[in-house]
Amino acid sequence: MFDYQGNFQTAVAAVRNEGRYRVFADIERTRGNFPCATYYSGDGPREITVWCSNDYLGMGQHPDVTDAMRTAIDKVGAGAGGTRNIAGTTHFHVLLEHELAELHSKEAALLFTSGYVSNEATLSTISHILNDCVILSDELNHASMIEGIRSGRSAKLIWRHNDLEHLEELLRELPLDRPKVIAFESVYSMDGDIAPILEICDLADKYNAFTYLDEVHAVGLYGAEGGGIAQRDGVSDRIDVIEGTLGKAFGVMGGYIASTSAFVDAIRSYASGFIFTTALSPVLVAGALASVRHLRQARELRERHQERAATLKTMLGAAGLPVMPSVSHIVPLHVGDPVRCKAVTDFLLERHDIYVQPINYPTVPKGTERLRLTPSPLHTDDHIAALIDALNEAWAVLRLQRAA
Ligand SMILES: *Cc1c(COP(=O)(O)O)cnc(C)c1O
Known about the structure:
Elements: H1 4-17, E1 27-29, E2 36-41, E3 44-50, H2 63-76, H3 84-88, H4 91-103, E4 108-112, H5 115-129, E5 134-138, H6 143-152, E6 155-159, H7 164-172, E7 180-185, H8 197-206, E8 210-214, H9 229-232, E9 241-245, E10 255-259, H10 261-270, H11 272-275, H12 282-296, H13 299-318, E11 331-334, H14 338-352, E12 354-355, E13 358-359, E14 370-373, H15 381-397
Parallel strand pairs: 3-12, 5-6, 5-7, 7-8, 8-9
Antiparallel strand pairs: 1-2, 2-3, 4-10, 9-10, 11-14, 13-14
Helix pairs in contact: 2-12, 4-12, 5-6, 14-15
The structure holds pyridoxal-5'-phosphate.
């Protein structure tokens, strides 16, 4: 007899042996108390400070957002009631798609149930529509992009991360009239570095390529209205497709693309991951709409966010902690080993009520295991000071490498 359960257990044992078994922290956020939350530990609930949330600005608790969601549920109920095609397109969906198109200065936008689904569905559908297409993918692209490219089954070339020379080398080898899609991100979420978007667009023009940009870690956070790095750099009109999430800086849930009407219409008509699934709840859509509208005029909040990140980086550096170079709001701290990475985060949580999730392979390459800190505008100087003290103690107790 085939041992089904045994096979599942063996698979998990392999992960455990490498020290990268994932343990989820059971937490409950308290509205109005960001970035603090209640941690349900083995011996009862405790208040902790969260240092690893992707709700970068605390918008998941903003009164504009929660009021809009409360109003929506009272008005229209819980769910969309169908796929977008069959009774699931609510007026909230229509309004949010207009708002997102405007945010990115594009003709149209299309909602998906998550950022993951938007990447997977859109990239795979591009491959099906563009005959004989080649996708040129940055080597550090997110799993959802890789999955979309894989399931699209078109030719794929991987270019070294943010390496323009390598990208050009690959483009030069391809016939000018063959369809080519350059797929990349703006802010890379684990290193906090940023793609040279302008130069990539220049290459796309020179070699007649189409550009697909994941701005998941930038929307809401960069640009005059939170339209992302493309908006900040003044190059939104040079990107063919901008993809974003409503689950990170916007604090709710869902994903989207913004592009030309022709492109959005094609994805709407062909993408399985868009067509055959129940539309996002109108309650979520109403919350996201309020969040996007709020953040379009929240310049000071974005400035405060950047200031907090800069302050944290400076203080980590001054303490001799191995903060990795980052030009964004993401602050990675190098540990370099999965077991120690987990040990540091256990220490922080158990001894100091500080929650940071260890980042291990396959999210980052082996040997580059790290803590990924995400300071928000609501992390105070006291929060930062407490974090530095706790890290200093962890580094001493666990005898970890300090900065060179
Ligand atoms: C989180 C993430 C996604 C997926 O977005 P969700 O809305 O969380 O599904 C896509 N791309 C990148 C780079 C991400 O980090």
